[in-house]
Each structure stands twice: as structure tokens, then as C-alpha cells.
């Protein structure tokens, strides 16, 4: 009946207290083992992601001209896209490791701490109840033994009284004393019996409460705790699978990107790119004329007018009397490795070396260029045209950068002129002069390379499509600048052959500045249109904008950025449609929009 009432409850195992303790301990160890398994899986994912990223980084194109040339081909661009997708693929494994740590490892670690504390509390209550029932049992056994002892002593006293009463030689007083002693022993035995009965009743009640109330409740709590543990392990295992499933769509997109990159490879386009990259512009040589042999005549090799040698100019006579042989076609190699040449006196060579002037290039050209002549004359015509055009584009970008910086300094000078307490306007002049000189040098280089480009294209130096002027200041300075030779405009050669720089350019810069129209007042809000917002900024420090053109900000205030720092240390911000002004760039933290960064 009792077992039927207990059903599947752990109370049925009330006598298996130690076994249940071992079982729950093994359950905790299982959770710890599973948590360790997930932790090692997370470490493997992190290591794998790191190796994938290193692999992608290893095969990324290097910053050199050879890799840039290779990126023109669709196959190289597809491989670069594959590397980028592989990098994103590695990121998804990092996401797996992060989710495993946050959703499983951390949660199981916290749960294990709670589980151990709960288990310890339940078994503490069980041991306490066990000790209490054992103490009650000991009291019952003690009272039982005392009752048995008192009963035996009462029997001995009764037997002694009966012997004394039957003996005629014993006095009446001794008999009375024995009788009283027997009565007292019987009374003590009766009291011991009553005490034993009370302890027995109490023990039976406590034992019944122990096995039918206390222990079942404790075991029921242990059972619920164990079921929650098993359920928690199941949830963790499900989460383990869901973490992988969550990244599958993004992993699939990465793989789709790799497939799309592979499908974008176009062999025909790459072949055309090879032709475009290595097209020399030379025309094939003409037919070789028939040359008859006559007595006393020497057979000479004649070259057509369209041959490669004639395109470079006719052969010149060597100092020793021989003539240089023209190259028939670029792919034909000279098989005569050591041709015989007429020797010439060493003094002629020495005089020729002393009479030649060293060809110097400017510092900017050395910084930009690589090996080979500055005008790329060592390249075929078509390749030379491309190199010259790329060089002109790069220099125009440098001119635009210098112009932007100069405009910013000019604005700052205007602010200083209106508010002398903010700074000395004269302190900006040296930097403005330096920038003007740099712009003039860059413009001279543009003219120089444009001349070479016009020569390659077979046109006059005055091209029909001149490059776009960057600003009014650029036009005025361009009109005042002087024409230069094939070397840098500021290059000069001293009598001893050393390199000097022209000092008269400062005068030209001053003339250019004098001819530059003064810019409009940037603080006249009524005459200029509202500038668009290019980002936001947060004030790191408070700034009191007492001067005209500035705006006061408080620490932590959020503002809109409408004009970046042009190199003058000031950023133009807007609080609302009517309040805007300049604040020190070092006082704010700027967050530009993506399109503003790209521009």
C-alpha cells in the first residue's frame, strides 16, 4: 500500500540515501564535463577562425605595382573576392565561439554553482533528519535497557523478601525492611516501564514522520533538482545545435559570394586586358628590298621606313666609324653576344664623360617615381602614354589637396584678422607662401608631363582638352607661372655641378596671391546657402565661443558637422537651423558619414 502511494517518487528509495548522494554527484560531474566539451569546441572555433584570417591575410595582394597590375584581370579580382568572403567566413566561426561562450558556457557555470549549493542544502537537511531519528532511537534503547535492569532488580528484591519472611530466625524488623525494599524496587520498575513506553511512543511518531514526511520531502526536492539538471543539459545541447544553425545563412552567403566570384571570371576579357596592357604602339616592319650584288660593292641591310629602327631615328655613326644596326622586330634577339667593335682612344671617352652634364631630377620626382627615365621614354609609345596620363592625374590630385589646405589656412587668417585675440594673422603667411610655392611646382610638373604626353600623342603642347581647373586661385597661379624645361622648374645647376633651387619663385607666389580674389565672408549667413550635414560630433570638452564666428558648446553635447577641418584646427558645426559656427577640432570627437569619408 505504501509503495503504491509513492509511485515513481524517489521516496521509494528512502533507504538508499548514500546511493542517491552518489548519483546526484555524478550528475553534477556530467554537467561539468559537458561544459568543458563546449569550452574546448569554442577554443577550436577561435583557433580555426584565426588560422583562416591569417591565410586570407597572407594571400591578400601586396602594395606594389606588380599586384596592382594583376588586379586588372577578372581571375585575380575573383581570387581577391574569395579571400574577402573567406575572411567573413572566419568571422562566422568567431560568432559561433562567442555564442557558445555566452549562451552555454557562462550559463552552465552559473547554474553549476546554484546546483551545488541546492544539493548541499538538501543533503544537509537529510543528514540532520537522520541524526535526529538516530538520537531518538538511542534514547529508546537506553530507556528499554533501564526498564529491563529495574525489573530484574525488583525480582531479586522480591525473592530476598520472600526468603527473609520464610526464615524464622530473622527478626521482624529485617523482614519489614526487606518488604519495603521490594516495594521500592517494584515502584522503580513501574516508573521505568512508563518512561520506556513514552519513549517508544515518541520514537514511533518520529520514525513515522521521518520515513513518511521528512525524507520523502527531501528526496522529492532532490528528484526535482535532478530533473531540472537533466532538462537544463537538454536545453544546452539544443542551443549548441542552434548556434551552428544561426550562422548557416551567412556562411551560405559567403559561399555564394565565392561561387559568384568564380563565375565572374571572363577569359576573353583577361585576354583583351593583356593586349591593352602590353600594346606597344609600334608598327610591323615593312618589306625588305632586293639588293643586287655588283663587283666591288658591299651588300648592306636596308630597313623599311616603318621598321622599329627608323621609328627611333636613323642610325648614327659611331665614333669609331661603324654604324649601329637597327632592331628589326622587338621579339628578335641579338644572337651576336660579343660583336666586334672598333676600339677608340680612352682619352675620347674621358673627354666625352667630362663634357656630359649629369641629368638631375627634382626631389618630388624621385619620391614619386621608380626606376627608369622620368619621361618614361624607355617604354613603348602606348605604355608611355598611359604612364604619363596616370602621372598627370596623380599630380592633379596633389594640387587639389594643396589647394584645399591653402583655402583652409586662408579662412583661418580671415578669422584671425577679424578676431586678433584668437591668433596672429601674420603667423599664417609663411605657411601660405610655402603652399603657393608647392602648388607652382606641381603645376610646372603638370605642364612638363602634358608636353611629353602631347609629344607621344602627336599633338602640340597646347592640348585641346586641358585638365579641369580646380579653383580661381589655380587659374591665377597657372597664368602667372612660367614654362619650364624637361627637368623640374626649380632645378638649377651651379657652376660646380651641385643642385640648387630657384629663389625667385617667392615673388611669383606673392603676385599670384595678390591676383587672387578675396573669399566671401564665411560668417555671412544671409548670403550663403545652408551647408549639408556630413556627420555628427560629440563635445569632449566645454568651449566658450566668445569671438565672432565661433559657437559655445558644453561637454557631452551632440552637434552636426557641416564642414571638416581643413588643416587650420577648426571644425564647422551646427546646433540647429539658426546656430552654427566653428569649434576647435581637438575639443570634439567627429563621426563622419560613409560618403563623407570616401569623398
Notable traits:
two-stranded antiparallel ribbon; single chain; mainly alpha; SH3 domain; Substrate Binding Domain Of Dnak, Chain:A, Domain 2; membrane; lipid binding; 14 helices; five-stranded antiparallel β-sheet
Quick summary:
This protein has 599 residues and is mainly α.
Report on this model:
By secondary structure, the chain is mainly α. Among the domains are: 8-271, Up-down Bundle (Substrate Binding Domain Of Dnak, Chain:A, Domain 2), CATH 1.20.1270; 381-458, Orthogonal Bundle (Helix Hairpins), CATH 1.10.287; 535-592, SH3 type barrels (Roll), CATH 2.30.30. It is built from 14 helices and 7 strands. The protein has helices at 2-6, 17-58, 65-70, 74-166, 172-263, 267-278, 308-311, 346-355, 363-368, 381-418, 429-457, 472-480, 505-515, 594-598, and strands spanning 491-493, 499-501, 535-539, 558-563, 570-574, 580-584, 588-592. The chain has a 5-stranded antiparallel β-sheet. The chain has a two-stranded antiparallel sheet with strand order 1-2. Helix 2 (17-58) packs antiparallel against helix 4 (74-166), helix 10 packs antiparallel against helix 11 and helix 12 packs across helix 13 (505-515). The chain is elongated, with a radius of gyration of 52 Å. Residues 1-7, 302-347, 349-370 and 459-528 have low confidence and may be disordered.
